[in-house]
Specification:
The chain has 279 residues and is an all-alpha fold. It has eleven helices and no strands. It is globular and about 50 Å long.
């Protein structure tokens, strides 16, 4: 029943875009997270847009995705200039990510996702525990091979599908996977993650624009603020000790898991309300 509820047609766009001060504040928070942890920032910006700017969830998600495009470009450029991006790995991950995003969006309209969401919450908690307990190692080199390339594509596919299903930025999945599975530097993982977000978020924004779910004016304001914040935050990420960076990222994952859990509980309760009223 929950799948039917979440796959309903897009709700009308929120009437008000909120004050520009609120939108700037939302963008600054999203840009800070984007540069510091190489995540899209939508996990924080979406609920803020809903709570403070009175956006419906679909409009908030679409506007947040549009805003993160320029922030990802600027943030990834900072990492690139510092030599902390693997362009080849990012290209293969992006291929899988684009396909996965389209597949995830299609699946969202067809299958119940409450059970999948709880599985994903458990996955995030496990990743958070690893990030806190295991210190990332910097200075690792990426040894490229056909098997590694296939692994990158599969990672991108998983990132895209989960992003489409749950509205989670790719960095939540890509960064810990590159560190934990491919055993690479946390800085290279973050830089590569930001690089991958550029094509995936741009394609998603194009689809949302055609569907009429993006608030263009709000997206521009949030995007400019996010871009401005991503520059110093990316520079700060380069200076943070690997251990501290891992702990902070793990704590962020706990916040993400808590938010997803609250959303899953609310979805389950709202799905049961009609039957309870009928009885």
């Amino acid at each position: 029943m929950s799948g039917v509820k979440e796959s309903s047609p897009p709700a009308p766009r929120a009437a008000g875009t909120g004050s520009w001060i609120v939108l700037i504040g939302v963008g600054l928070v999203g840009g800070l997270l984007s540069g510091l942890f190489a995540i899209g920032g939508g996990i924080i910006m979406v609920p803020l847009l809903m709570a403070l700017a009175n956006f419906d969830q679909r409009t908030a998600a679409a506007t947040s995705l549009a805003a993160i495009v320029p922030a990802s470009v600027v943030g990834s450029t900072t990492y690139l200039l510092a030599g902390e991006i693997d362009l080849l790995a990012g290209s293969f991950i992006a291929i899988g990510g684009i396909v996965g995003a389209l597949l995830g969006s299609a699946l969202l309209q067809r299958i119940p996702i409450v059970g999948l969401r709880w599985m994903f919450i458990v996955f995030i908690l496990l990743v958070a525990a690893r990030m806190v307990l295991v210190s990332p190692v910097r200075g690792e080199s990426l040894e490229f091979s056909a098997l590694v390339a296939l692994g990158y594509v599969v990672l991108g596919l998983a990132m895209g599908i989960l992003s489409g299903l749950f509205g989670i930025g790719g960095g939540i999945i890509v960064v810990p996977a590159l560190i934990g599975i491919f055993a690479i530097s946390d800085l290279i993982a973050k830089g590569t993650s930001l690089l991958v977000m550029i094509p995936t978020s741009a394609i998603g924004t194009g689809a949302n624009w055609r569907a009429g779910t993006v608030d263009v004016g709000a997206g521009l304001i949030v995007g400019v603020a996010a871009t401005a914040a991503s520059i110093p935050s990316a520079a700060l990420a380069l200076a943070l000790p690997a251990r501290l960076s891992g702990i902070l990222f793990g704590l962020l994952l706990l916040v993400v898991a808590a938010q997803l859990a609250v959303r899953a509980i609310r979805t389950t309760r709202s799905a049961h309300l009609p039957s309870e009223i009928a009885t």
